[in-house]
Write a structure and sequence with these properties.
Blueprint: E1 6-11, H1 15-25, E2 31-37, H2 40-49, E3 54-57, H3 66-76, E4 81-86, H4 91-100, E5 104-107, H5 113-124, E6 129-130, H6 135-149, H7 155-165, H8 170-177, H9 181-194, H10 200-209
Parallel strand pairs: 1-2, 1-3, 3-4, 4-5, 5-6
Helix pairs in contact: 7-9, 8-9
Amino acid sequence: MPESIIKIAIADDHPLVITGLKNTLKPFKHIDIAGLFTTGSDLLNGLARQETDVVLLDIHLPDNNGSDLTRKIRSLYPETKILIVTSLQSMEHVKAMIQYGCMGYLFKSSANEQTLIEAIEQVHKGNLFIEPTIQQTYMRSLLKLKVKTEPKLTRREKEILKLIAEEYTNQEIADQLCLSQRTVEGHRLSLMQKLEAKNTVGLIKAALQMGIII
């Protein structure tokens, strides 16, 4: 059974990078390079004209950054997958771009033929592809994040957290729950430690992000 054709768009502001990626992909019959772009606006115009399966996207383009472009592409063309190909190697960038909706993240320094094709094919299938040299680090960071996003709160702490979110003072919470103000203050301190918050605003923000309150 013949392989399905994967239509590719490449967006990078360095002509040498575009040429290198194009030459790497050219021998593969199941890869169709539908467009080459050096700016974000040109990329968006190109996607409007040509159906594209996977975009190879650099994070920094002259007129747009990767996060903004990713959001626009995900909104306008939800079926189009995005594979970041960049020189930025920080874990913060990796996690941020995946969170914005990219399906893959690859370093330019390791975008050899085999790795690049594997990344494109996996992303096209809807699978997540992370730069091979940091896959284990990325997975460990996800495990840590999972632990962090699921703090063990007692029933009382959840009650107090809900009242804090509703802007009750410590004394008002104490009166409502028939507790001493000192006990409430102790629970508040415990909540801030568990949710790694520095103040009430941070406490509520963390609780919302973690889905503890809605």
